[in-house]
UniProtKB/TrEMBL annotation:
<keyword id="KW-0815">Transposition</keyword>
<dbReference type="GO" id="GO:0006313">
    <property type="term" value="P:DNA transposition"/>
</dbReference>
<feature type="region of interest" description="Disordered">
    <location>
        <begin position="48"/>
        <end position="68"/>
    </location>
</feature>
<dbReference type="InterPro" id="IPR001207">
    <property type="entry name" value="Transposase_mutator"/>
</dbReference>
<dbReference type="Pfam" id="PF00872">
    <property type="entry name" value="Transposase_mut"/>
</dbReference>
<protein>
    <recommendedName>
        <fullName>Mutator family transposase</fullName>
    </recommendedName>
</protein>
<keyword id="KW-0233">DNA recombination</keyword>
<dbReference type="GO" id="GO:0004803">
    <property type="term" value="F:transposase activity"/>
</dbReference>
<keyword id="KW-0238">DNA-binding</keyword>
<comment type="function">
    <text>Required for the transposition of the insertion element.</text>
</comment>
<keyword id="KW-0814">Transposable element</keyword>
<dbReference type="GO" id="GO:0003677">
    <property type="term" value="F:DNA binding"/>
</dbReference>
<comment type="similarity">
    <text>Belongs to the transposase mutator family.</text>
</comment>
Length: 174
């Protein structure tokens, strides 16, 4: 990041902070920093991948590829590094992953577990990631948890459970 870009980022962040606008999110001042962070992390992963043994075997960098990522901060393009032997498999943003979410399927299962309908989950994901997920895909994901929920609902209960009741009284003392 050049000094001019850094100054402009600082100015935009200060203006948004003074006006009460959020600094993060789609139009936030810090949204471009996510792109730079991801690209730097991918470069570091590539450096780690191209150890001395890999380089001696003839594996070297082989340019960069463009990838469109959807996140809560909006849609943006990043450059992913590539190697000659195509053995680099990034962990931060995996191959063929376009939505930046920590385990989107786990989030869908969590929303379903909270009682949201498939339509609510679909509209929630559309709001957050600007991406459509069909009801068929959602059904396939949520069908994985139904046997676990049924097993939990039909589990044997203990005849007696211990309950601890705590109470407190607060007094102002000067």
């Amino acid at each position: 990041m050049t000094q001019a870009e850094l100054d402009q980022l600082q100015k935009k962040a200060l203006e948004q902070f003074k006006s009460g606008q959020p600094l993060f999110g789609k139009d936030g001042a810090f949204a471009p920093m996510l792109k730079q962070f991801l690209e730097a992390a991918l470069q570091a992963e590539m450096e780690d991948h191209l150890s001395d043994q890999q380089r001696q075997a003839g594996n070297k960098r082989n340019g960069k590829g463009a990838k469109t990522i959807k996140s809560a901060e909006g849609t943006f393009q990043i450059e992913t590094p590539q190697d000659r032997q195509i053995s680099f498999s990034p962990q931060i943003i995996k191959k063929r992953e376009t939505i930046l979410a920590n385990n989107l399927a786990d989030k869908i299962i969590g929303l379903y577990g909270l009682g949201m309908s498939l339509r609510d989950i679909s509209s929630h994901i559309r709001e957050m990631y600007d991406s459509e997920i069909s009801h068929t895909v959602l059904s396939e994901i949520t069908d994985r948890i139904i046997p676990e929920v049924k097993a939990w609902q039909n589990r044997p209960l203990e005849p007696v459970y211990c309950i601890v009741w705590l109470d407190a009284m607060h007094y102002k003392v000067r």
